[in-house]
Amino acid sequence: MPQPFQHDVLIIGSGAAGLTAALTLPAHLRVAVLSKGSLSSGSTLYAQGGIAAVLEQTDSISDHISDTLKAGGGLCHEDAVRFTVEHSREAIEWLIEQGVEFTRSEDDGEHYHLTQEGGHSRRRIIHAADATGQAVSNALCDRVKERPNVEIFEHRVAVDLITHRKLSLPGNRCVGAYVLNRQTNHVETFGARFVILATGGASKAYLYTTNPDGASGDGIAMAWRAGCRVANMEFNQFHPTCLYHPQAKSFLITEAVRGEGGLLKLPDGTRFMDRFDKRGELAPRDVVARAIDHEIKRLGVDHVYLDISHKPAEFIRGHFPTIYEKCLELGIDITRQPIPVVPAAHYTCGGVIIDRRAHSDINQLYVVGEASFTGLHGANRMASNSLLECFVYGRAAANDIAKRAPDIPEAPLAPDWDESQVRDSDEDVVISHNWDELRRFMWDYVGIVRTTKRLQRAKHRVDLLHQEIAEFYSNYRVSNDLLELRNLVTVADLMICSALQRRESRGLHYTLDFPGLLNEARDTILTPTSWMRRTT
Asked: For 470-512, how does the pLDDT look when each residue is reduced to its tens digit (9 = 90+)?
């Protein structure tokens, strides 16, 4: 069997949040970074728009906070919003120090160009053309490879967390994880004094998503199974504008296109957003996504159009080179033609409950990025606040670990993963069938517009999938597809149950049965102990 690995800090996930934590940790700590694929794989690479931050004198922290609170539908935690926004400038300065090359202003070439996106009252989105995620990912990957204290483990997918409870030891501590090596197909044991989950969200639970690689809810599901609370899992953000083309099912059209004047149009060329919101194309994402969904269903069409062709061709190619080239490959010249777009699952606003140091409910277990619930996003994430959250909380987790490290003992050795009672699967069709069923009923029943009956149908189906997958997991060797499916079914169940509990329409959760708002805004908090009592 593979020998166990021992580190001071185990970081599961190699996106913006995980790599930020790795680079902020002190050099004397031994750090392991796990990545499902190559180091740069994950959702960060595909982020186009940019990072929201207060960088100009014409902007203010109070304005950024106010905009975020408005977009969040009354559910943002103001202390978390303030904490994040107040650390926005230092996060950007840190990224520049790491080598991220943001786009400069065309006027003087010294200041950075800022764009505006939905929900923002100011231009405050710093970006690297329309490939900000790629610029961030490349820079952070380059820096982390230079760190002698950081060991990178690619092609690894976590199976489950190792806790004192799992080892029948007293206390409430996380001490590592069991991890599948996708190249050897064996499970390895990683012990650590601290564990950071930076695994991203769960939008892969839906049939159409902007996240092609990860986003299978791994960290949320593992933390839940280990005993952590989760919150607001019913709030799943659908990005309004994903390219509609059979050869580009997950290609995002950044919100910055609308921020720079792009107009949403029906097939006959008429605009429609003004009928839904006075802010038009710059309304928050939930409003725009529902409007597009409404028009698609009303007209019985497959998509609407996003048109920026009225802008000069040089301006379009300069601001959106990635989008221009991708669309041109598919026969769409966006300097002359509108872009066919549809909404797609994009961001999980809920997650594992943490505090401002990124602590979870389990000692020495931290959660950062999209897998976490900080209270920043409320009922609807405002554009470009998500990457900012990754940097602010990734740094907060690392700084807290640095302070606490001298007092935390080595993790106890965990037993090796036992494969003696399982066999190779000869029924992988079960995995593919269940995967397809899950993503389809989540799209149909737990999508942009919901009803109680649809949610109940989804709950019935997810319960059946739970049973089938539990049996499969118990009898066969684990695989990447099985682990992702197991996690997605767990997280889909959390989404459905959270949605059934919210008897109102707020932010990203819109139900025809309860279209109004309740007087008091409350988070939906689920706890594993009460869940077990209710489901057994």
From this structure: 888 888 889 999 999 999 999 999 999 999 999 999 999 999 9
Supply the DSSP string of 381-396, one letter for each residue.
PPTTHHHHHHHHHHHH
Spatial separation of the C-alpha atoms in residues 207 and 238, rounded to whole Å: 12
Nearest to 150 by CA among 42, 33, 20: 33
Residue 510: how many other CB atoms lie within 10 Å = 18
Burial of 357 from C-beta contacts in 10 A (0-12 / 13-18 / 19+): middle
504 neighbors 235 (Cβ within 8 angstroms): no
Per-domain residue ranges of the chain: 239-346, 429-535
On whether the 429-535 domain is CATH 2.60.40.10, my answer is no
25-50 tens-digit pLDDT: 999 999 999 999 999 877 777 777 79
235 in Cβ contact with 286 (< 8 Å): no
Structure tokens at 424: 């190779």
Q: Among 97-106, 236-245, 434-443, 516-525, which range has the highest average pLDDT?
A: 516-525
pLDDT (0 to 100) of residue 2 = 57
Q: Where are the beta strands (DSSP E) in 25-104?
A: 31-34, 51-52
- Rounded to a whole number of angstroms, the distance between the first and last alpha carbons of the chain is 35
H or E segment and range at residue 90 = helix 88-97
**Which residues in 39-155 belong to E strands, given as ranges?**
51-52, 114-115, 125-126, 150-153
Element holding 7 (H helix, E strand):
strand 5-12
Q: How far apart are CA 420 and CA 400, in angstroms?
A: 40
Instruction: Give percent of the chain above pLDDT 70.
Output: 96
Burial of 171 (0-12, 13-18, 19+ CB in 10 A): exposed
Please tell me which residue in 173, 193, 258, 285 is annotated as part of the active site.
285
For the entire predicted model, the pTM comes to: 0.91
Give the pairing of strands 174-181 and 186-197: antiparallel
CA 397 to chain centre: 18
Neighbours of 183 (CB within 10 A): 9
- Copy the structure tokens of residue 536: 């057994």
| Cα–Cα distance, 439 to 459 (Å, whole number) | 13
CATH class of 239-346: alpha beta
Per-residue pLDDT of 354-393, as tens digits, reads: 999 999 999 999 999 999 999 999 999 988 999 999 999 9
**For helices 88-97 and 78-86, angle between their N-to-C axes, nearest 10 degrees:** 40
353 burial type by CB count under 10 A (0-12 exposed, 13-18 middle, 19+ buried): buried
Model pLDDT for residues 264-296, shown as the tens digit of each residue = 999 999 999 999 999 999 888 888 999 998 999
Q: Say how far apart CA 284 and CA 70 lie, in whole Å.
A: 9
Task: Say which residues have a Cβ less than 8 Å from residue 242's Cβ, sequence separation at least 6.
Answer: 208, 210, 250, 251, 252, 253, 341, 342, 343, 344, 346
Q: Are 353 and 162 in contact (CB under 8 A)?
A: no
Active site residue 506: no
SS3 of residue 25 by DSSP: coil
In whole angstroms, what is the distance from residue 372 CA to residue 151 CA?
Answer: 24
